[in-house]
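OP here, attaching both records as promised.
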Amino acid sequence: MGKYIASTQRPDGTWRKQRRVKEGYVPQEEVPVYENKYVKFFKSKPELPPGLSPEAGARPDGAAAAALSKAAKRNLKRKEKRKQQQEKGEPEVDGLVQALERSSLGGGATEAPGEEEATPQPPCDGAAAERLRKIKNLRKKLRQVQELQQRLDAGDLKQPTREQLEKLGRRKALQEELQELERDL
């Protein structure tokens, strides 16, 4: 006679039929994976070099660190320093972000007359970050308008294009928008 494998339910909800199997049948999941003689040899081989006792192979942590190269030690120190900075909450990075937000790309000499430099606070949410980005873009546009005006006044630009004239005409609107955004901060 034979043995029966009971019907089972598939993951999609349908059912497999009951099956009859021969005596000594081993399900595929339970069949051991074939290993050739080389794989068996290397699995049975110890991980330590020949002649080294297992007690000597197990070093304390201090001895393991002493065996590292200079570059590995340096990398280990860097990793520890990064972890410490992340645990602190990175106050140094926040300070740098604030300093960068306060500074302008042109060194302060290219600010438009009557334009006050507001000290933006670090972004605490997405909306504040978006406002800071808009302020930065408006300052850049105003700086470009001022440079264009200086080129016109100096006579470097004899015939401005239509786009350049439009840019000069938007100066007042850009200044008003910038002042409004800086007030909201």
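Record two, same layout:
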Amino acid sequence: MLLVLSEEQRAHLGCLPSLGAAGAGELGRLALELLRHGGAPRAVETAARSLSVDAEALQRGLDGLSFLLAESSKLMISETDFQDSVHVLGFSDELNKLLLQLYLDNRKEIRGVLSELAPRLPSYHNLEWRLDVQLASRSLRQQIKPLVTLKLHLSEDGDQTAQVLQTDPSTLLHLIRQLEQALGEMKSNHCRRIVRNMK
């Protein structure tokens, strides 16, 4: 699976050949630091001074390289697919090998960092439900008032929580239709592509 880069991302990576092998290696180190710990403007300014390039151009190159490494790691692109993806950029063989080595050496660590950044959401554990129907009251002898009570049990990091929801059947039917529609949309090619890229 090839990684497709937009024109903007290609433009950001365009500064790599002018930096040379040492400069590209330094930019790779900064990109890994950016992925691990977030942005460090001082480190970018220091690197820009040492490489005698504009700090803003270096920051754009850093963003492009970070994106390339993060997306490649997230999609678990193979060695040949990564080479083909980078080859399209028109870099020298030396720079392509440097980027490939940077990717191969750090892809597991980058995947670990990306998994830590992913939101932790509760997952379904169990569902209890009850249907209550009020048939009459003191003021109304013939009254039918149904009420559905749901108790949703969720698990999050080994802890279990319960949410109690109460609704009438018409609202519950509307909710069911909306969820079925969402499940139907998940079968579309567009959603499948998004889900595949998220893994």
